[in-house]
Every structure is written in structure tokens, then in C-alpha cells.
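User: Predict VWFA domain-containing protein's structure from this.
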Amino acid sequence: MSFFGFIKRKFSKSSNNPFFQDSKDIRKYFPESPGIASDPPPAYTQDAAPVAQASSALNVPRAPSAASSRANRINRDMVTNDDDPYAFLTSFDTIFLIDDSSSMTGSRWEQVRQVLKNIVPICTKRDKDGIDLYFINHRSNNTGGASEGKADGGYYNISNLDTVTKIFNGTRPSGSTPTGERLRSILKPYLAKLDASGDPESVKPINIIVITDGVPTDDPESVIVQAAKKLDGMDVPLYQAGIQFFQVGSEASASKSLKELDDDLVKQGVRDMVDTCSWKADGAKGAARGELSAPQILKVVLGAVVRKIDRASTPPV
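Assistant:
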């Protein structure tokens, strides 16, 4: 039984229970992935005060008291419902990491523009804090701040597509593809904030969407494995951090590299926090040329985090 199945039973006597809504849109838009849960992650609230240093115990099953705490944070507005299959996004901070290496020039850069046009409005509409935007090579003059859990050199709390487009238009692809290095710089302050909070449940989960044409010039796998081990050590929910690699272009070696990255995490014996998918600009079934279909959008914005919810360990009932 999933954690949210447990919550349904525990609170089934309450007429105000938000889970009385039948949430089937996720499965309707994403039928090929039976592992996706139809219930949401716990809602995030900003009123939880940090306390002492978090424990570094390795992968200890969460206690029922923690589950009760999460249940109390859930509210009606954060529940996936029949009208909005993307309602999960209200519970996550969405971070875009764009590959701006020299291989992204020409048609691939234009494809990134189209992907952002399709996805950004969905995310900004549901993230009250706004989305964060980073590039692999380009750096802004902005300072993220350790207390915020954000890396330097990014663009923060963006609330609309126009701002993203302006930033994107001012960036030109050049250089190599140090995907791992940039992921490390993004994950490090977030993990530090999570660990220092003393109450990881009070820290909003993140979903990192990496838009790239494929093969990195460094080793992102080791960076992700290290992050996964830290998350396991803090015993945070499996959806606390996810990384979605979205490939533009159709280079076979790049597709193979991304698939291996996804598959190898399981072999490392750590949490699976990565998902991969690709898109061709000639249009998908149910979508016009240059447009993403509903299942594709859903996979991009939620594929690395939502499918983890059903796998979370839960207290016995």
C-alpha cells in the first residue's frame, strides 16, 4: 500500500478529506507508466521552523510519526484532481538546467526554445515561488545564497515565459558540456539546506529538468550517485529530489548515454532519482509540429519524481 493509500484509510471518516476526489488524470495522460501514483506528495508549507542538525543515519525506514506529520501538511489545494493532472507541481520547486554547449547551436537551440515554450507556462502557473533557470556554461551575476539552497550564477523565481525567453535569447551556445559539474553546483547548496534544516519535511522538494542534446564531457553519474547517497542518509522521501534528462535531437549515442545513466543508478544500490525522455520536433501523436503532446509534457515535468511516490516505505496500518 502506498503512503497515500494509508492516508486515505486513516482519514476516510472525515467529510473534509481532500482525497475523496478521484484523481485519474495522471493515468489517463500517462497510461504507459503503471508505476505512477495517482495521489500527490505531501504539500509544502513555509511555516515549519528549522531545528537541530539532521541525522545522517543510513536509510532507516521512516517512523509513523513522520508520516503523521506529512499528513497534517496536506491540504486540498495541493491534491491532484480531475481538472489538473499537473497539480503535483504546486508541491515542487522546478529548476531548469539548459545545455548551452557548442553542440547546441542551430536547430537544437531552436528546439530548446520550443520545449521551453511548451513546458515553462505549465510550471510557472503552479509554482508560487517561480521557477529557477540555469545554463551549463553561462553564468549570471546573481548570487544564490546558502540559506536559500540555490547555486550562484542562475536566474531565480521566474514567474512567466517572457522572462525565460528574454534570458534564453541573450545566451549563445559555446564551450563543452560539463553537465556533472553544473549539477553538483545546483545540488550542493540544496542538500546543505536540507541537512541543516533539522526537519527535511519542511524543505520543498525539487525537480531538475535538464534539457540537452546528450553526451556530457564529464561524469554526471558520480555526482548523482553521491547526491542519492546523501539523500538516503538523511532518510528523506524518494521524491525529495528528481532529475529529468530531456534530449533534443536524435543522436543515437546520446540517447544511449542518457539511458545508461538512468539504468546504472539502480545498479549502484541507491535511490532512483533520474528519468530520461526525448522529443523530436516533427511532432508526436496528438500534437502539432513543434508541440509536445500531453503525455510528453507530463513525463518531462513529473517523470523523475512522481513515479517514486508509490515506492515510498510506509508505516503498517
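The CA atoms of residues 10 and 313 lie 16 Å apart.
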